[in-house]
Amino acid sequence: MDETFLLMLSNLLHLHNSLDPTTSLLSPASSSPPPTSSPSPSSPSSLLSSSSPAPLLFFTLASLLSFLATSSSKKGSKNSSPSSENREPNSSPSPSPSPSSSSYFSISAFRALSTDHIWTMDAQFRDALWRSLYGLSYPVFTTVVEKLKPFITASNLSLPSDYAVAMVLSRLSHGYSAKTIASRSSLDPYLVSKITNMVTRLLATKLYPEFIKIPVSRRRLIETTQGFEELTSLPNICGAIDGSPMKVRGLKLDRNLMNCYKSKYGYDSVLLQVVADHRKIFWDVCVKAPGGADDATHFRDSLLYNRLTSGDIVWDKMINVRGHHVRPYIVGDWCYPLLSFLMTPFSPDGAGTPAQNLFDGMLMKGRSVVVDAIGLLKTRWRILQDLNVGLNHAPQTIVACCVLHNLCQIAREPEPEIRKDPDENGALARVLESEKQFYYFGESLRQALADDLHQRLSSR
């Protein structure tokens, strides 16, 4: 309550006592007990029916001051709402219901919201509020907290685990800087950065094996290949691969390294490579190359490439297409090399035969799944549109957002409007000498798939 109002209230009490010292306006405990046979003089009815004008005068003035104080409080709260000039560069107005810039950031406010009020809220309203604050619904939020809590507790962090996770998710989903989060939470920016690094590292290491998995089990393979076949009419596709540069803000690099991190779109970045299934769930993530690297080079440096070429990954599903044994394969654009386990288009400009052009169209339709998945990733976790973390922490931040993306997709969270990168215009990938055997088999396999597809669709 405002100090000025309290002072005025105190003055009114003194005024009342001087006008009518026989009537107490304090609680009954502070006055002598009245006779049981008559109403208490301090009861509302007796005060208003009293012959003295003091009680009525007091209540009239007190009511007026209470009204003025309430109106002033409401006006102040409106004036304290953040203006568009003070918003983060990456942030946009949050959907309704949207909190004020600071009302949900303190520990006490978060604790009151997450414990006292959460179960009285309508579930739909509650999840909409949580998405506007932390990028995901309340049930998914609690899942993340429960899985990370043992590790956060073991680190002896001075903040509650759920509050630490909420603070980091708010930063990832809105793109806030550590300085902004610190000012709203009354914490030191260094502590915010430290907590961000800890939580993203836990997401990228402890939760990665559970939520980002190569589909090697027969059940999941059948589900994935059937999903892609419904979309493309091509059999045994188990994933779509693509790369995307992730902009990193304020890189201070040696002159020899500047071009390495400069993406084809002109900004400093690191390169993300993902493989997604038909539900836009990532089953492989790699962030090992600077933004100036090409997709084929990044792919060859990845653990996935080494596992595929060495035969370490065993696909427990094989079909026969025109005499060719076809194991599950992934699809990509012409920036990737054609290999037995990676199908790419015949031509980027539609210069092939009718069967080849039909195959290319269907393959690119399957590839669109991973393009949409990357768009969803960047839309949900806006920090990826302009990373405001150090270069050493950029890869783990990106991987952490990929883990959170999968959690959202598995929980069937609503998909926001997708933010897509410009269309690819890279050069055709060349084939290395060590890849020749995979290339020749992939070439004959691709042609068999194209001829089979053309025959099946033409006979309908």
From TrEMBL:
Cellular compartments annotated: Nucleus
A single GO cellular-component term on record: nucleus
Biased composition (Low complexity): 72-91
Keyword flag Nucleotidyltransferase: no
Domain DDE Tnp4: 259-406
Chain spans, region Disordered: 24-51, 72-102
InterPro entries from the UniProt entry: HARBI1-like (IPR045249), HARBI1_dom (IPR027806)
Pro residues: bias regions: 31-42
Keyword Disulfide bond on entry: no
Chief place where the protein resides: nucleus
Family, similarity comment: Belongs to the HARBI1 family.
Protein name: Nuclease HARBI1
Organism: Theobroma cacao
Taxonomic lineage from the root: Eukaryota, Viridiplantae, Streptophyta, Embryophyta, Tracheophyta
